[in-house]
Structure of Phosphoglycolate phosphatase:
Amino acid sequence: MTGMSRPLAPHHAHAVLFDLDGTLVDHAAAARAGVDQWCVELGLPAGQWNRWRKIERRWFTRFERRQISHLGQRVERAREFLGRPDLSEEEALRLYERYLAVYRANWRAYDDARPALESALVSGATVGVLTNGALSMQTAKLERTGLLLDGVVVLAATDLAAAKPQPEAYATALARLGAEAAGSVLIGDDWINDVVGARRAGMRGMYLVREGLRRDRRAPVDEPVIASLAELEWAR
Ligand SMILES: [Mg+2]
């Protein structure tokens, strides 16, 4: 109970891993801007963010389960959203690129992201970003948002050959960092990928539920959450 009643006590960690989208960078705002502009360009009705989000989640989950490639989920998202299952892969990716251009232009770090990375680095911990996105895009995202600090290692699913919550994703990431699971922590906004999966891998998982967002129904009601990365404190 002590841990639950005092979630803000400084933590000891040898390795601190952060999720990227929804944790360090506001993915939802950028994706929403991307899809809104895409609809304008393609002459589609406005206000399709929720439909896009559901399609994204469904296909991205298939990628996480290794049922489809990373590029393949992009193709299928474009085909389904545009209602054009006949699109060739090439054509689907060409159209998807228009969404991505606006998505990229709208990348913004959360205000608490850089200070959180810096304080983890200052604590002497090994610091990584463990993301289910593609390595090239996620590295560019961190760079463009001022988060690719010296010492921060980018660990992306396309490079690890496994995505969260597959056990290999955490194990491979920790091996890259030269860190043990015990003594390592993952902080993220996805209950399954960042908390449950991390714990299954022997790490500590900390659940971030930013203001205005709902916690996952599968999370126990007494699970301590942080609403901001500013609540993190690392013991040296
Ligand atoms: Mg996330």
Observations:
- The first helix runs from residue 2 to 5.
- The mean pLDDT is 94.
